[in-house]
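A protein record pairs a chain with a discrete description of its three-dimensional fold. The following entry can be read in just this way.
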Amino acid sequence: MSRGRAGRAAGQGFVEFGVILAVAVLVAAVVLVLLRPQLAWILSLIGSEVDKSGLLFGAAAAL
């Protein structure tokens, strides 16, 4: 029994989504492994600037 062209193409979107998701995970893992020191430095810099500015908890403390 042949399902026809529509039956075979029905799952194609799931396969493409799976491939795109796998590539995105692979790219994210490679970036995190290779750029770990730079990302840590940037996030530390952002965190210290937020702490200095008081934007995160300053408004809540004023209430």
Remarks:
- The chain has one domain: 4-62.
